[in-house]
């Protein structure tokens, strides 16, 4: 069947809307009519060559939509169900069998190869190859083929424009706090970088009742949103010394680094209290980036951990996030600005400039 999709021809290029053909779902696959798709920093990392991917390619890995067809082996969703698409995992490796699909040994190939594991394409153009299967979906399109295990059913009363970011950015930020750090009412936490991932961490910290929530960014409008979502302190790095503010607040039990900026990463570690302080690194840096910090920060009991997808089991965690949204406890919609599919290049520009926190493409 024919679909419309945003195709990236080359690194640093613009997206072009094209008519393509999409395959039929294989036994363990699902055909989804995409209603909304978030634009995430990971998509932009491919555009900027910070992540490798074959081109031309259809990106998009925060898809949300309605199931149209399922493969013969799919039982947990059916046509008509509303779903969120998330990261793929093999389900067979030692990490998956241990209940840690976010560390799947095949996740890089499943996400970035541009084809199914058997080398076949899910989408094609009349006269050339176009890569798909980006994070097991390629949701910058009117339809996508996803795997059964990265297709998650959500309540129909939840607007899909708000559900789309749950598949990656919100899951990553909120999951880091709720699944890994688990602050208490006595905790002090700082979030560096107030994009969608960082602001999801702020919302989650508020859910945990953290005593101090410091939001750090260089864009005032994002900091205003952080304050509205629960930040007790805000720091604009263009005008303030983040470490001074953190130390004046008594130091940090936890920090979440969601910017990928090396200098902020170093501050996120330096601001930790000794004997138990933990920094979670989420931001995607430029290739070859290095960090420098005082070795004594580690030998005095501070920890630095890398987190992938919020250590989430998506079939369990995404429905929890959806219910928190419906209960008014996770106002993801406050981050979202919608764009038509053919406005994707403007959406990308607005994301890069900081004008829009979470661009979401609407396909209809």
Account of the protein in words:
By secondary structure, the protein is α/β, with parallel strands linked by helices. It is 27% helix and 24% strand. Strands 3, 5, 6, 8, 9, 16 and 17 form a seven-stranded mixed beta sheet that branches. A six-stranded parallel beta sheet has the order 12-11-10-13-14-15, with helices on both faces. Strands 4-1-2-7 form a four-stranded antiparallel beta sheet, with no helix packed on it. β16 (336-340), α12 and β17 form a beta-alpha-beta unit. α5 runs parallel beside α6. The longest helix has 13 residues, at 169-181. It is globular. It starts with a strand and ends with a strand. The model has no long low-confidence stretch (mean pLDDT 95).
Shape: globular
How widely separated are the two ends? 17 Å
Task: Please mark out the parts with pLDDT under 50 across 5 or more consecutive residues, or reply none.
Answer: none
Structural class: alpha/beta
Please give the number of β-strands: 17
Helix content: 25-40%
Helix tally equals 12
Summarize the helices and strands and which ones pair or pack.
Elements: E1 2-8, E2 15-22, E3 29-38, H1 41-47, E4 57-58, E5 63-70, E6 82-85, H2 94-97, H3 107-112, E7 123-124, E8 143-147, E9 151-153, H4 160-163, H5 169-181, E10 188-192, H6 196-207, E11 212-217, H7 220-229, E12 233-236, H8 242-248, E13 254-257, H9 262-270, E14 278-281, H10 296-299, E15 303-306, H11 314-326, E16 336-340, H12 344-353, E17 358-362
Parallel strand pairs: 10-11, 10-13, 11-12, 13-14, 14-15, 16-17
Antiparallel strand pairs: 1-2, 1-4, 2-7, 3-5, 3-8, 3-17, 5-6, 6-9
Helix pairs in contact: 5-6
């Amino acid at each position: 069947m024919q679909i419309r999709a945003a195709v990236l021809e080359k690194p640093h290029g613009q997206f072009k809307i094209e008519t393509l053909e999409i395959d039929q779902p294989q036994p363990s696959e699902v055909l989804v009519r995409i209603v909304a798709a978030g634009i995430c920093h990971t998509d932009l990392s491919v555009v900027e060559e910070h992540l490798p991917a074959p081109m031309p390619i259809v990106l998009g890995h925060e898809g949300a939509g309605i199931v149209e067809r399922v493969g013969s082996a799919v039982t947990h969703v059916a046509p008509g169900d509303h779903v969120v698409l998330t990261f793929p995992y093999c389900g067979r490796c030692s990490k998956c069998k241990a209940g840690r699909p976010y560390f799947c040994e095949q996740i890089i190939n499943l996400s970035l190869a541009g084809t199914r594991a058997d080398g076949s394409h899910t989408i094609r153009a009349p006269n050339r190859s176009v890569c798909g299967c980006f994070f097991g979906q390629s949701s910058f399109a009117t339809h996508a083929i996803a795997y059964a295990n990265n297709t998650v059913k959500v309540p129909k009363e939840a607007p899909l424009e708000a559900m789309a970011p749950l598949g990656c950015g919100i899951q990553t930020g909120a999951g880091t706090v709720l699944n890994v750090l688990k602050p208490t009412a006595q905790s002090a936490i700082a979030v560096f970088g107030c994009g969608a991932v960082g602001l999801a961490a702020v919302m989650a910290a508020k859910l945990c009742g953290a005593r101090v929530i410091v939001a750090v960014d260089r864009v005032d409008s994002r900091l205003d949103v952080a304050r509205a979502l629960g930040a007790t302190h805000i720091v604009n790095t263009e005008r303030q010394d983040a470490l001074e503010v953190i130390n004046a607040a008594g130091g940090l039990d936890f920090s979440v680094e969601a910017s990928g900026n090396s200098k902020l990463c170093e501050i996120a570690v330096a601001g930790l209290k000794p004997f138990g302080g933990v920094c979670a690194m989420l931001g995607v840096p430029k290739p070859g980036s290095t960090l420098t910090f005082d070795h004594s920060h580690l030998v005095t009991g501070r920890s630095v951990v890398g987190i992938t997808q919020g250590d989430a089991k998506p079939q369990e965690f995404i429905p929890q996030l959806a219910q928190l949204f419906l209960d008014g406890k996770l106002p993801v919609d406050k981050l979202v600005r919608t764009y038509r599919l053919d406005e994707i290049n403007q959406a990308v520009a607005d994301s890069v400039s900081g004008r829009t926190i979470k661009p979401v493409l609407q396909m209809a």
